[in-house]
């Protein structure tokens, strides 16, 4: 497995986790933070601590995603082959053969007004 493939798998996992963390949040104060701290102050962490955790994890995952994307760009196998455009190269003149012209069918079925004999 190449380094780029490992980075690609990590990017997919981090992106999925980032989507999950963002979907759990609710900008109106609901979501996961309200279910943990809504009943009283003796709950798991309280509203403020849950919101802080979700906010910090969102920033951490977004930063990690950005770093992984930048590092994967370095890990791409660019090869030794030149990727310059061949369209601008004057030495490489390749011509495509033209398709063979097909003759139009000739028929003598066209009737002229003089040929028609209507009675």
UniProtKB/TrEMBL annotation:
The chain crosses the membrane at residues 6-24, 58-76. It is a multi-pass membrane protein. PANTHER family: PROTEIN-EXPORT MEMBRANE PROTEIN SECG. It comes from the Bacteria. It comes from Jejuia spongiicola. Residues 91-113 have a biased composition (Low complexity). Keywords: Cell membrane, Membrane, Protein transport, Translocation, Transmembrane, Transmembrane helix, Transport. Involved in protein export. Participates in an early event of protein translocation. It is found in: Cell membrane. Belongs to the SecG family. Residues 86-119 are annotated as: Disordered. InterPro entries: SecG (IPR004692). The keyword Translocase does not apply. This is Protein-export membrane protein SecG. The keyword Transport applies.
């Amino acid at each position: 497995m190449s380094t780029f493939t490992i980075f690609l798998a990590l990017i997919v996992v981090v992106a999925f986790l980032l989507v999950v963390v963002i979907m759990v949040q609710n900008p109106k104060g609901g979501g996961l933070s309200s279910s943990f701290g809504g009943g009283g102050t003796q709950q798991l962490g309280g509203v403020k601590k849950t919101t802080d955790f979700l906010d910090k994890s969102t920033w951490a995952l977004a930063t990690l995603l950005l770093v992984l994307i930048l590092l994967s760009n370095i890990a791409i196998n660019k090869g030794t082959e030149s990727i310059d455009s061949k369209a601008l190269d004057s030495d490489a003149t390749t011509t495509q053969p033209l398709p063979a012209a097909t003759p139009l069918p000739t028929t003598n079925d066209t009737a002229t007004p003089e040929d028609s004999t209507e009675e």
